[in-house]
Amino acid sequence: MSVSAPSRPAGAMRRRPKTDLRLGLGFILPAGIGLIAFYIWPLIRGIWLSFTEYNLLTPEKFIGLQNYSRMVQDKIFWNAVGVTVEYVVINIGLQTILALLIAVLMQRLTQSTLVRSLVLTPYLVSNVVAAMLWLWILDTTLGVTNQLIEAVFGDTVNFFSSTLAIPTIAIINVWRHVGYTALLIFAGLQSIPNTVYEAGKVDGASEWRMFWKITVPLLRPILALVLIMTIIGSFQVFDTVSVTTQGGPVNATRVLQYYIYDLAFGRFQFGYASALAVGLLIILAAITALQYKMTRAGQTDLD
């Protein structure tokens, strides 16, 4: 006697398995709208404007590569490139060394959450507030720094002169960002297993030798990521220059971002300013690709 299988409701045969596709799209949608509205569309619009003559008052006029030809012959543009590179070298050099030192000290001496919070505190201050604060501290007449220098040496120092302005601005931004960079490196240190350090101690390696032979090689992917992020951010410095020197004296601190801003909103040359912005985009893309390849950021020595 055969037993027939129980019949299923007709609706059950047509029911599809539930997925999280709609829920996922719902979460992605707001970020996607923001990405298109504030990044992708302005990028496309800026590239188009770089081929036009546009000043807000008249319709856009297509002029081909004239803006790029002007950019190549623009002495102020090349001066801005040189000033920006000087800032990036000083800022990245100091910031990376100090951040690595702070991260290693936190790893070796203390991993307290309070210490990490204190290290991150300057990063929570906005760029404009940090620039105003240091502008007052370093003021030639009223700044507490110059009052101490005058009391000891009998003279003051103009920290925002043509010679010292870029190093001063770089140090201000190092103070603000070094804590955040240190925490990124500290997170990378947490991924290095203690067994490799124990093996180094068994072999009689000193702390200094283990740092160069173990810590730095195993930290390479994180250091590469940090360098890519900080260099991109450094090339886009604007707030500190705008608050402290406004690109002066003369063009000593006229970095690329400030020059682009001045052309667009000071002289209403939006077409030429867009061409410079595209030029900066190409520079950053080339530097990032070169860094990624040279540092082998996508590979790790922990395998």
Automatic annotation (TrEMBL):
Gene Ontology CC entries for this record: plasma membrane
Entry similarity comment: Belongs to the binding-protein-dependent transport system permease family.
Gene3D superfamilies tied to this protein: MetI-like
Membrane topology label: Multi-pass membrane protein
Pfam family, one: BPD_transp_1
SUPFAM superfamilies in UniProt: MalF N-terminal region-like, MetI-like
Location relative to the cell: Cell membrane
PROSITE patterns, A to Z: ABC_TM1
Full protein name: ABC transporter, permease protein
PANTHER family assigned: ABC TRANSPORTER PERMEASE PROTEIN, DIACETYLCHITOBIOSE UPTAKE SYSTEM PERMEASE PROTEIN NGCF
Keywords carried by this UniProt record: Cell membrane, Membrane, Transmembrane, Transmembrane helix, Transport
Domain ABC transmembrane type-1: 81-291
Residue spans crossing the bilayer: 21-41, 87-106, 118-137, 157-175, 218-238, 270-290
BP GO terms, sorted: transmembrane transport
